[in-house]
Design brief:
alpha+beta
Length: 228
């Protein structure tokens, strides 16, 4: 039986056709050897409009008593990407970033700018549209800010989907074209707002992460749903 997961499915819903083609070509041999067919599911739907979408835990600058010398645009709750070369470690950090935000000290434009810093600089692979879609529209963000809504996140675990592992085992060298890995992360998001309101929910997301040798990892896309 063929697996339901395909790295070529990263292109589903992308705005640039060339990016779809690039991802497909890069990993075509890997998928062919594994007998993987495309799993066309549309964009990952785990983000909740009421929770907003997602980036970052509160920054250390917000809790420090020392005066900050950073520009105002830098004093926001979106963390900088970690300098790591392990896809699992990077995906955990990226998921935590995507599930955390603080409308009390970060406006929507700052949130997006902080998220974009996590993206790969290789434009032929970067799917910024799938990542930026995690953020609510300006009207909803404004309403969240009125309620001082903020969220933190904890990560429970992260793993390579089974079909990705099988495909990689079939042909380890196929990954070397673009070094893009699929990583599924699970965890919990805790949300709070004015007057003591709050709640929590379990979260799960599959990320496309690029980790070239001798370079820090970066985010490529929010991947479609895949078999675990």
């Amino acid at each position: 039986m063929k697996n339901r997961f395909s790295l070529s499915a990263y292109g589903v819903g992308w705005s640039a056709n060339r990016r779809i083609l690039a991802i497909t070509v890069v990993l075509a041999s890997l998928l062919a050897l594994a007998g993987v067919t495309a799993y066309v599911t549309g964009r990952h739907g785990q983000h909740d409009a009421s929770a907003g979408p997602t980036p970052s835990v509160p920054s250390s600058s917000s809790t420090s008593n020392a005066p900050s010398t950073e520009p105002e645009a830098e004093r926001v709750s979106v963390p900088r990407p970690p300098q790591v070369s392990d896809p699992i470690a990077f995906a955990k950090a990226a998921a935590q970033m995507l599930w955390s935000y603080d409308t009390r000290d970060t406006n929507r434009e700052q949130q997006l700018a902080g998220m974009e810093a996590w993206m790969t600089e290789e434009s032929e692979y970067s799917d910024w549209a799938s990542v930026s879609a995690q953020i609510p529209d300006p009207t909803l963000w404004s309403r969240m800010a009125d309620q001082k809504q903020h969220a933190t996140a904890t990560v429970a675990e992260a793993h390579y989907p089974t079909a990705f592992q099988q495909a990689l085992a079939e042909d380890p060298s196929a990954i070397t074209e673009a070094y893009i890995y699929a990583v599924t992360v699970t965890g919990k998001q805790t949300i709070a707002w004015a007057k003591g309101g709050g709640g929590a929910e379990d979260r799960s997301i599959t990320l496309a992460v690029q980790c070239r040798p001798s370079a820090d990892c970066s985010l490529v896309a929010i991947a479609p749903n895949v078999a675990p």
